[in-house]
Amino acid sequence: MTDYVDAGEAIPHVQLTNVRGEAPATSTVDYDRIRGARSEPQNWLTYYGTYDGQRYSELDQINKDSIRRLSPAWVFQAGAVGMQSGASTYSFEASPIVIEGVMYVSGPDGRAWAIDAKTGEELWRYKHASPYDVSLCCGNVNRGLAVGHGKVYMYTLNAHIVALDATTGKMVWDTVNGDVRAGESGSVAPLVVKDLVIVGSAGGEFGVRGHLDAFDAETGERRWRCYTVPKPGEPGSETWPDDGEAWQRGGANCWVTPTYDPELELLFQGTGNPAPDFDGDIRPGDNLYTDSTIAVDVNTGEIRWHYQFTPHDLWDYDSTMENVLFDAPDGRKLLAHADKNGYFFVLDRTNGELVRVFPFVDRITWGEITPEGKVTPKIYPDEEGVPVHFWPGPAGGKEWTHMSYNPQTGLMYVPVQEVGATATRRRREFKESIPYWGAGVAVDIEDFYGFVAAIDPLTGEEKWRWNNEYPMCASTLTTAGGLVFQGTPTGEFVALDASTGEKLWSFQCGSGHHSSPTTFEVDGRQFIAVPTGWGGWVEGFLPGLLGAAAGDALFCFALPEQ
């Protein structure tokens, strides 16, 4: 007879570390404080820094003159080990939040941390368990957290919205927001508005119906849901087949954080591609509200207006990318959107009226959009088994990574990808949780490049560009110091002159950039924080670097202490 030894009781993994398990309490972060975030540039209170999505900071200690002395202050190792959820690679894609010297950041595979923003010391950690076989389109990733009302909010891979105690990292509530077995998932950074937490769904490549949701920040109870594909009888349903179930599998997911105008009380949400991505015969019509910006009433979840960038999309041109809010010199409220389809749009954000549209990439072959907004497709996969090549590829002229806007220069700084693809239509029967693309796709592994483009959104003029051998796959950040920060796929983190595009400084981080840098100040010292870690949907945006070094480090830079 075998004698068994008592193995003892399981304990939390963090108990076997030096992590203290508690962060200093910060002042209350509520709606009024986030609304006035521009007035406290020492903090980075929300995903884009401010509700308008400009990714601009008034901090100027790090500037054109001092940038040459910028050096690493600390490095945080996320420590990605063991098996990761989903049959895909992971990537460190987050945008760090900083409040009064405490940094809150998420990583792949359901992890979140509170970190001492001055020293890099880990204060607490959280790990959300997700099924290993969860269906993920584009990598095991999470783009960030939201902080408010004493809590840290996270949207998880398996479509849970969770609230953690901001001081301890302990779970306060957990609400399920999607069917993970149907292909729904979560990767978006939540947005706190009033007493609500806003999140959008992911999973359009699996034939799910997209939605944007608002939850009570205190209890986790859902307040409203806005479906982004209308059901029969609703406005926009005439753009889908009258019979069948195409609308139920229509996509239009909201996997990038919206921007928000407090005066209009409107959320500006980009929506994803229709499903199947490349087989349009299954879904005749314009397929609203896919590939659109929708203006959503934050109080009710109702769509007030929409603008569709690529009707009846046949190229996987999601329009989830950010909608940057800015005002014209005459006070007109505008919205800027650089779309996957290679065109830059400026809209009146009060009503969705097109103000201006122009190309921002060098190569566009899929179709043409006139200055009046008329869309004419030219090349698309319309015959079974016949390959069709087009530019931009399905990752777009600009992927989800964000542009920034500097009010001092009046310029948008756009990370541009010049890479094409070949799609061959392959009709497939819909099966739940199985990719529903409608084509085989091969993204070019040569003949690609990238650049940062400085664009005047009022005229459409490109003022300068900084060229790079590889496409730009990370967000830009701009500051009152006259700088633009950009990470490259080969690991270089660079600072550019915001007026001229001249490269003023660089640092090799050892792994490619696919995240969103932020800036903050602690005890009078300005820092620049950037997560690094190449991975995610590399085969979709830059397969030529599929073999590049992975990583999961967060670098924090500052000037030497006096």
From TrEMBL:
List the Pfam families.
PQQ (PF01011)
Enzyme Commission number(s) from the entry: 1.1.2.-
Q: Which cofactor does it need?
A: pyrroloquinoline quinone
Cited Gene3D superfamilies = Quinoprotein alcohol dehydrogenase-like superfamily
Can you name this protein? PQQ-dependent dehydrogenase, methanol/ethanol family
All residue ranges annotated as the Pyrrolo-quinoline quinone repeat domain in the record? 44-355, 471-528
Class of enzymatic activity (EC top level): oxidoreductase
The UniProt keyword set, sorted, is: Metal-binding, Oxidoreductase
User: Which GO molecular function, any one, fits this protein according to its record?
Assistant: oxidoreductase activity
Q: What NCBIfam families does the record tag this protein with?
A: PQQ_enz_alc_DH (TIGR03075)
Name the family.
Belongs to the bacterial PQQ dehydrogenase family.
